[in-house]
Design a protein that fits this description.
247 residues, alpha/beta
Length: 247
């Protein structure tokens, strides 16, 4: 009996070691690491967090907020976030930070449908922006499953998003990212490299002629979920809208 228990415990320990090894290896091999700087922050060290997309991380400069107003801020943003990703971002922030204010970029509700409708190759890139660089957690797995349901994909279409080491295994190892964290002096701020941060109108993506356009049923559902998550975590949240998109 003792031998069987010992063998069982050995298997469990082996599985845990294997699991941790895969996760740490993934972090060191990832190609999209935009959120690593956030995970390197000290706990409860930020007053304001901007959550959203390239619309925000190319426009708001946390360094200037500190220099001019003494506000400690961070851009928790990726190139693209789907509407359903925003609430998972709030939960992720809650784990280590207790910001006084969270600014929510609502660009996903304006052009996210556009991102989902483009060709498969680029759509996969948009999904990558939502999932890669996040730390492994139950919420990340739930988000993988939710995104898959949204695009009506099969398990064979998205299984590798659960462990993105399957896509990055040939990358160069960056040992300092073993915990998916790396100090970012720009605190999430960055100009987009492609097109030099050129500004283009969103006229061809959504109706901006001044009249109110209602959210569709799906968008309304995720918006309500977002508000529910903010209330549950007692966040003081404001919404940020920019009329231009940086490409």
């Amino acid at each position: 009996m003792k031998k069987k228990i010992k063998e069982f415990l050995t298997v469990i320990v082996g599985v845990i070691i294997l699991y941790v090894s895969i996760i740490c290896s993934t972090y060191m091999l990832r190609g999209y690491t935009v959120l690593c700087g956030f995970y390197a922050l000290e706990k409860k060290s930020v007053d304001v967090v901007f959550v959203g997309t390239s619309v925000t991380f190319s426009a708001f400069m946390p360094m200037e907020a500190w220099k001019e107003y003494g506000i400690v801020a961070y851009d928790y943003c990726t190139n693209v976030q789907f509407e359903n990703s925003l609430r998972y971002s709030l939960v992720d922030i809650q784990r280590t930070q207790k910001p006084k204010v969270i600014m929510l970029d609502i660009a996903p509700f304006l052009y996210e449908h556009y991102a989902r409708g483009i060709v498969d190759k680029d759509r996969e890139l948009c999904i990558k922006y939502n999932l890669d660089s996040r730390k492994y957690s139950l919420d990340r797995f739930l988000l993988v499953n939710e995104i898959n349901k949204d695009i009506n994909g099969s398990f064979s279409d998205y299984w590798y998003y659960f462990f993105d080491i399957t896509r990055y295994h040939s990358n160069k190892i960056t040992a300092k990212r073993i915990n998916n964290s790396e100090k970012d002096l720009l605190r999430g701020y960055r100009w987009l490299s492609h097109n030099g941060g050129a500004v283009v109108s969103l006229d061809n993506i959504f109706n901006d002629d001044g009249h109110i356009v209602k959210l569709n049923e799906r968008e309304q559902y995720y918006f309500e979920k977002l508000i529910e998550t903010a209330k549950k975590n007692r966040f003081s949240s404001d919404f940020l809208l920019r009329s231009y998109l940086f490409l």
